[in-house]
Amino acid sequence: MASAITTLAADAPTLSAANTGFMLICSALVMLMTPGLAFFYGGMVRVKSSLNMLMMSFISLGIVTILWVLYGFSLAFGTDSGSLIGWNSDYVGLSGIGITELWDGYTIPVYVFAVFQLMFAVITPALISGALADRVKFGAWALFTALWVTVVYFPVAHWVWGAGGWLFEMGVIDFAGGTAVHINAGAAALGVILVIGKRVGFKKDPMRPHSLPLVMLGAGLLWFGWFGFNAGSWLGNDDGVGAVMFVNTQVATAAAMLAWLAYEKLRHGSFTTLGAASGAVAGLVAITPAGGAVSPLGAIAVGAIAGVLCAMAVGLKYKFGFDDSLDVVGVHLVGGVAGSLLVGLFATGGVQSDVAGLFYGGGLEQLGKQAVGVFSVLAYSLVASALLAFLLDKTIGMRVSEDDEVAGIDQVEHAETAYDFSGAGGGASSRSTAAPVPSAAASKKVDA
């Protein structure tokens, strides 16, 4: 008995300073993704709604952080109840957690795991906002965010990643959030826009991005932060799996960007900066669920397939008449579905687990599990999000008035504008039309 106890004690995980530091850095990288997303979306809208777009992402850092501490972490990662939701009173307010208490089976503190997962919870509703540009009341959006993470994100995170969650127990592979983050957000975006309707002038007025440099800056920050998002999801760096995920993140993103640009050139005749940025994001989305299961060659395939599929999908809003303002459905929903399903084809069985996909002799079993995960999350998020939007629209109202939308949501909702050219040095046009100011010497001559 004594020797057995000694063996168990020796095998018990101990706090790793290296893994703890690594995960804190990864958490900071994921936090940076939300401001990066704000820049990405903010540059894609017209100038009169750019501040509102920034704020729709930024406010998530405030709302979701507080809710996560109060009860979100407990619902997502507490003790399982019926395979649908979790709960642990020690996690409420993060008040019953010891500072060196380890996350079960790992070498990092519970606090570190909690803050890492918090950053995922923050960015997911922010992703939805891109579909709603130009037309949603900011107060209604803030309330929707609070309700949505409570009703949709926290339960789905438990299904996918929580011990006892039904998709987790089924064996659905989602390394870093293809279902819980991207399909969840993309389906929610579709549900909400079907309720609130189109922008004024959709398919009639030009709605081009006002600042492509801002878009590229945001895409670059997203790409940078995504290494923490993906590689950090292994919760340590002891066995090389996180390193493979890091490499696959870079490889798939590059492949998707090139594939999107190639499709764009063949289809429309140009290589655009918006296409490069969107293609990169599509690759990041697709590799998120798959990168811990595939090889670098598989990552190229995942990225290239997602790049082409997402480039094709963004035009569907014009065909079917739903106003997905910044292509959240086309990139995040379609990219998340593609990456999640491709696990069932390209999983090698030699990285995060021994589960192999169809192309590596594993048959169709894993593909079937992935499909269950994909379509269950899609359906739940679509329906629940549409219902939340409907209830808010019928009570407090989701949309600004048509006049306010035309005038510009920044001024109406925030009493600010992104760019002020009325001050000193406000541009060539203001200088050319202003009356000349006489010099001191000229004034003296006039006075004389």
Features:
448 residues; mainly alpha; 18 helices; 2 strands; globular; disordered N terminus; disordered C terminus
Give an overview of the whole structure.
The chain is an all-alpha fold. The chain has 18 helices and two strands. Strands 1-2 form a two-stranded antiparallel sheet. A hairpin with a 3-residue loop joins strand 1 and strand 2 (85-87). The chain starts with a helix and ends with a helix.
Short description:
67% of the residues lie in helices and 1% in strands. With 448 residues, it is mainly α. β1 and β2 (85-87) form a beta hairpin.
Helices and strands in order:
Layout: H1 2-11, H2 17-44, H3 50-77, E1 79-81, E2 85-87, H4 110-129, H5 138-161, H6 166-170, H7 178-196, H8 212-231, H9 241-268, H10 273-290, H11 296-313, H12 316-320, H13 328-346, H14 365-395, H15 402-407, H16 409-414, H17 428-433, H18 440-447
Antiparallel strand pairs: 1-2
Helix pairs in contact: 2-3, 2-4, 2-8, 3-4, 3-5, 4-5, 4-7, 5-7, 5-14, 7-13, 7-14, 8-9, 8-10, 9-10, 9-11, 10-11, 10-13, 11-13, 13-14
Mean pLDDT over the residues: 92
- The H/E string reads HHHEEHHHHHHHHHHHHHHH
- Please mark out the parts with pLDDT under 50 across 5 or more consecutive residues, or reply none: 1-9, 424-448
Overall 3D shape: globular
Q: Approximately what portion of the residues adopt beta-strand conformation? A: under 5%
Category by helix and strand content: mainly alpha
Cα-based radius of gyration, to the nearest Å = 24 Å
Number of strands: 2
Largest sheet report: 2 strands, antiparallel
Task: Compute the number of helices.
Answer: 18
The helix fraction, in percent, is 55-70%
Distance between the termini: 111 Å
Walk across the major sheet and give the strand order.
1-2
